[in-house]
Amino acid sequence: MPVDDDLILDAAVDELRDYGLKRTSVDNVARRAGLSRATVYRRFESKNVLVQAALVRESARFFGEIVAAIGPLPTAEERLVEGFVVGLRKVRTDALLTRLLVSDPEELVPYLTLRGAGVIAAASEFLVSQYAEVGGTMTRDPHVLAEMLVRLAISFTLTPDGSIAVADDDAVRDFARGYLVPLMS
Amino acid sequence: MPVDDDLILDAAVDELRDYGLKRTSVDNVARRAGLSRATVYRRFESKNVLVQAALVRESARFFGEIVAAIGPLPTAEERLVEGFVVGLRKVRTDALLTRLLVSDPEELVPYLTLRGAGVIAAASEFLVSQYAEVGGTMTRDPHVLAEMLVRLAISFTLTPDGSIAVADDDAVRDFARGYLVPLMS
């Protein structure tokens, strides 16, 4: 029977949430998934690759939850604004992310920066697909705008202090309305 | 005679450029500046604080060079576009930054993310003061737009791979024209 990557990634996420980044190993993930070390290594060649795949999948799940939250909104503009608001709120409350930002900040950050291209691309593609679904027809490139949003969201997550009060939903909403929506044309 | 902070910060920048982040210490900076350890600690309470102050000053110098490069341009819009192009080009060629990104990436990144609020604020204030100097009159908040630019520039520096080809001046110029200039109104 072929091994399901999701089984491995579920175990990786559980290990990360319970033990943090430094103490998660391919061995422990394999044990939790009930698989041999060799089987896991065949699918994910290193801890870095495995953690990155887990974070890419978690970011897709994360965006899935945002999309569910904004589903009832009729226009692409309203969906972008509320998606940005809900997204930054979720970042502040997500169990895995807050765990890792507290326990392993200097381990987590490279996965969102130096090795962050995968997470950025996955999140951006997700936004673009959602935009296509509501029939968006902006003349700008939605991939570029989506990537801007994701890069800003990561920046606000890692460095919340600044001119925009990211812990205040109304301030985030005003920012999205004033500085992101005008680019959707 | 009061100790000049610049003397200490110059020594800190030289140490960082020559030895990288991990091997720079308050002791070595004091020795290079010809000061006692206690004198340096009186001005900068820890290595973290000293390195952060050195990076804040370097980012101000960095933006000063950009401003010199775009000085001849008449409009705020052209200055923003070329400033963004020159800025990302300088990031790729700056001796200290490229040294640290190669030798100490996982040490440098926290200074631009988790502990990045000082660098972001300094760089943003610099952009705003330059904008005020050319008599800019946008209705949006120039502090917010400046911070967006700085956050995006840091993101492109730490994660260059994506939809926008940041190593290509023309692609950066098109991005700035299409996605940043429209917010200057």
TrEMBL record, chains A, B:
PANTHER family: HTH-TYPE TRANSCRIPTIONAL REGULATOR BETI, HTH-TYPE TRANSCRIPTIONAL REGULATOR RUTR. It comes from the Bacteria. This is TetR/AcrR family transcriptional regulator. It comes from Kutzneria chonburiensis. The lineage of its organism: Bacteria, Bacillati, Actinomycetota, Actinomycetes, Pseudonocardiales. Pfam families: TetR_C_35, TetR_N. Keywords: DNA-binding, Transcription, Transcription regulation. Gene3D superfamilies: Tetracycline Repressor, domain 2. The keyword Transcription applies. Residues 2-62 form the HTH tetR-type domain. Residues 25-44 bind DNA.
